[in-house]
Design a protein that fits this description.
The structure is a single chain. The chain starts with a strand and ends with a helix. It folds into three domains: about 160 residues, 3-Layer(aba) Sandwich (Rossmann fold); about 70 residues, no CATH class; about 160 residues, 3-Layer(aba) Sandwich (Rossmann fold). It has a six-stranded mixed beta sheet, with helices on both faces. A six-stranded mixed beta sheet has the order 16-19-20-13-21-22, with helices on both faces. It is an alpha/beta fold.
C-alpha cells in the first residue's frame, strides 16, 4: 500500500453549542489508499469529512495537505486542490435536470457564452455509463427515486476528477446490484491512484474494500488499524464501546386477525411503456405481524406504501380494506386519521421540518394531545418529546436543539418517534435504517419487535435482504411492479428471494 503522506489531520475539534462533535482528533491519510471511517451516529465521522471537504471552515486544529497547512473557506477551495465529497444527505436542486445538477456552478458554455446543455448532457450520459445506469440526463431530478438521486450525486463527484474523493454513506439508498456497479467504479479509481475516504455503517463493504479503518466514538479517535488485522466484531465493539447483543426477533410472535387487506391493487403509469407502476397486488397484514416488501430498485416498493398512505402520483385501482372497512385516501391526513403512519425513505425532503427543533418535529402530528383550548402546553409538549427521545435513544443536546444539528440516524429516529406518537394501527416503514449504524439498527429492530408484540401491523421495505429476514414474519417480493413471490419465515433464503425479485415476464 502507498505510504506517501497526503492528508494530515492534527488535533481537530468542533463543537455545536454544548455538543462536542469532534475532540482533538489526529489522523494521517496516505496517498492512494482506501481509508474507511466508521462509528455510531453522532461519532463525528461526517463532521470530520466536511472539514476536509471545506463544508465546515470554523474548527479547532490544523489540516495539512501534501505537507502544507490549509484551511478552506468553502467547497470550491477544496475542489480547486483536488478534494470532492459525496454527501450522505442529498444536495440536489430538484427543479434542475440531472446534467444541470452535475455541472452546477461549473456550467459548460459555447463560443457565444451561452449554456451548452447538449455538451453537459453528453458528458452526464458518459458519467452514467461509467456507473452502468440509464438515468436520463435531461430529466428533472425531482422525478427520480432516492437511489437514482444518489447516483447523480456520485456522478457529480466523479465529474470533478479529484485526487481525494470522500464518500459519506454512498450506498445507503442503492440496491445490491447498484452497489456492485459502484464498487467496480471504485476499483478503477483506486487503480488510477485516487485516495478514497469512505464512511459506511455496512461493515461488509468496509472489510471488502478498505486498506485501513479508523474508528471514532463520541467525537474522539479510538484507533486506526490495517483492515486485515481486525474483524467486523472487533470494529463493532470499538464503535459502540460494548458488545452488540444478537438480535433475535420474530420468535413466539402471535399474529391476530387481519388489520389491512389489499385486493387487486394497480397503479397506472401514464405515458410509460410499462403502463403500470404496480399491477394486481394482493396481500393481507395481520395485527402483531411484520410484513416485508422486497425488490430491486424500480420494483414498486415505495409506490406500494404511497398507495396505502394516499400519496401516490396517481389514484390506484383496486381495493384497500382497513379494519374491515374499504378505504380510499385522497390525502395523507385521511390515512393518518384512519390509523396509518408512514416513515418515508427520504427523511431530508419528505420526513423532516428542517427549521424546527427536535421537540417540534416529534410532536407535530399529535399537537392535540398536548394542547388545551387551542393552546399548546409547553411543559406537556416537552415531556412528550423527552419521552420519545428516551424511548428511541436519540442522541441530542436536548429537545430544543435544531433537528438538523443531529446526525442522519438520529434525525431518522425523530421521524419514527413522531409517527409512533400517533399510535397507529398500521406502521409503514420505507427503508427505515438507511444511514443508521449497527447499534442504532439493533435498537430500532427491538422497537419494531415490541410494537409488533403490542399488536401493531407493520410493513417494512429495505434494500438489505438480511434486514428483512431479521425483522419480518413474511416477505412479499415485487419485480417491475408485479407480485412475484411470498415467503414465510421458515422459507426465507436470500437466493429464493433474489430469484423472485428478478422474475421478469
Amino acid at each position: 500500500m502507498p505510504t506517501t503522506s497526503h492528508i494530515d489531520i492534527r488535533n481537530v475539534g468542533k463543537r455545536y453549542g454544548g455538543v462536542v462533535a469532534l475532540n482533538d482528533v489526529s489522523l494521517g491519510i496516505t496517498a492512494g489508499e482506501f481509508h474507511a471511517i466508521v462509528g455510531e451516529n453522532g461519532a463525528g465521522k461526517s463532521t470530520l469529512m466536511k472539514i476536509i471537504a471545506g463544508v465546515i471552515s470554523d474548527y479547532e486544529g490544523e489540516l495539512r495537505l501534501r505537507g502544507e497547512s490549509v484551511r478552506f473557506a468553502g467547497t470550491r477551495d477544496a475542489e480547486a486542490v483536488g478534494i470532492s465529497i459525496i454527501h450522505q444527505e442529498l444536495n440536489l436542486v430538484e427543479e434542475l435536470s440531472a446534467a444541470a445538477n452535475i455541472f452546477l456552478g461549473r456550467e459548460k458554455r459555447n463560443a457565444f457564452g451561452l449554456l451548452d446543455d447538449r455538451a453537459m448532457q453528453q458528458d452526464a450520459r458518459k458519467l452514467f455509463e461509467q456507473l452502468e445506469c440509464d438515468i436520463p440526463p435531461a430529466g428533472p431530478v425531482r422525478d427520480l427515486r432516492v437511489g437514482d438521486q444518489q447516483l447523480v450525486e456520485i456522478a457529480k463527484a466523479l465529474s470533478l476528477q479529484s485526487e481525494i474523493l470522500i464518500m459519506d454513506e454512498p450506498t445507503s439508498a442503492l440496491t445490491e446490484t447498484e452497489v456492485e456497479r459502484l464498487f467496480r467504479v471504485i476499483e478503477r479509481l483506486k487503480a488510477s491512484g485516487v485516495t478514497i475516504l469512505y464512511i459506511s455503517h455496512k461493515l461488509d463493504e468496509v472489510f471488502r474494500m478498505s486498506d485501513r479503518v479508523t474508528v471514532l466514538r463520541d467525537g474522539q479517535l479510538v484507533t486506526t488499524t490495517d483492515t486485515s488485522e481486525t474483524s467486523p466484531r472487533e470494529v463493532t465493539h470499538l464503535m459502540v464501546g460494548r458488545e452488540i447483543e444478537e438480535v433475535d426477533l420474530g420468535h413466539e410472535r402471535s399474529p391476530g386477525d387481519s388489520v389491512l387487506a389489499v385486493e387487486n391493487l394497480s397503479l397506472p403509469w401514464t405515458g410509460h411503456a410499462r403502463q403500470w407502476r404496480l399491477q394486481d397486488i394482493n396481500f393481507q397484514l395481520r395485527r402483531g405481524e411484520v410484513l416485508g416488501i422486497a425488490g430491486l430498485m424500480g420494483a414498486g416498493r415505495t409506490e406500494l406504501l404511497e398507495c396505502l398512505f394516499g400519496t401516490s402520483p396517481e389514484k390506484p385501482n383496486g381495493r384497500i380494506v382497513l379494519d374491515g372497512e374499504t378505504v380510499r385516501f385522497s390525502h395523507p391526513a385521511d390515512a393518518c386519521r384512519a390509523g396509518i403512519a408512514f416513515v418515508t425513505e427520504d427523511r431530508k425532503r419528505l420526513g423532516l421540518f428542517a427549521e424546527m427543533s427536535v421537540r417540534e418535529n416529534i410532536t407535530l402530528c399529535t399537537l392535540d394531545e398536548v394542547s388545551s383550548m387551542g393552546l399548546i402546553g409547553a411543559t406537556t409538549e416537552r415531556r412528550a418529546a423527552v419521552e420519545s427521545v428516551e424511548l428511541l435513544g436519540v442522541k441530542t443536546d436536548g429537545v430544543e436543539a435544531p433537528v438538523m444539528s443531529l446526525s442522519g440516524g438520529n434525525q431518522q429516529k425523530c421521524v419514527i418517534a413522531r409517527w409512533l406518537r400517533t399510535q397507529p394501527k398500521v406502521l409503514l416503514l420505507d427503508d427505515p435504517t438507511r444511514g443508521i449504524d449497527v447499534g442504532a439498527k439493533a435498537e430500532i429492530y427491538k422497537v419494531v419487535d415490541q410494537l409488533c408484540r403490542d399488536g401493531m401491523g407493520i410493513i417494512v421495505t429495505s434494500s438489505e435482504l438480511p434486514e428483512l429476514m431479521t425483522l419480518c414474519d413474511r416477505i412479499l417480493v415485487l419485480c417491475e411492479g408485479r407480485q412475484t413471490g411470498e415467503f414465510s419465515r421458515e422459507d426465507f433464503s436470500e437466493q429464493s428471494i433474489m430469484e423472485a425479485a428478478t422474475m421478469r415476464e
